[in-house]
Design a protein that fits this description.
Blueprint: E1 20-21, H1 25-41, H2 47-67, H3 72-83, H4 94-114, E2 117-118
Antiparallel strand pairs: 1-2
Length: 128
């Protein structure tokens, strides 16, 4: 059926592809969830796991920022990785940790939305 309709201009046989891919969106959302979950675990035994998750995801997102040539995010994300480093822990007061977790969650969401690369499989580039 579709092969018979290919010659007609009003029939679209494939969906358009986006011009950009948000490569840091999934790790940004996961890191934001970890940061918000860490609010409840500050000072507890599970906080070390949260520190590992946030530090590792921060470095992964920094690598995606490097790949997207958006170098201004790298410094912010490396600072986040240093603060949440579980190997050489930074000891902050509970109130400071709470504010830091909310700020880190906002940074992760912003990175996930704003870090994007051109889609090499963009089939619509010829139409623009």
């Amino acid at each position: 059926m579709v092969a018979a309709l290919r010659g007609y201009p009003w029939v679209v046989t494939s969906y358009p592809t986006p011009a950009f891919r948000r490569i840091a969106l999934a790790p940004g959302i996961v890191a934001a969830i970890a940061a918000l979950a860490g609010v409840a675990l500050v000072g507890g035994d599970g906080f070390t796991i949260v520190r590992y998750a946030i530090a590792i995801l921060s470095l992964i997102i920094a690598w995606f920022a490097y790949q997207a040539n958006q170098w201004w995010w790298i410094g912010i994300l490396v600072i986040v990785a240093i603060i949440w480093n579980p190997v050489v822990p930074v000891n902050l007061e509970t109130g400071t940790w709470l504010v830091a977790h909310y700020l880190a969650a906002a940074v992760f969401i912003a990175c996930g939305i704003l870090i994007k690369v051109r889609n090499p499989e963009d089939r619509n580039a010829a139409r623009r």
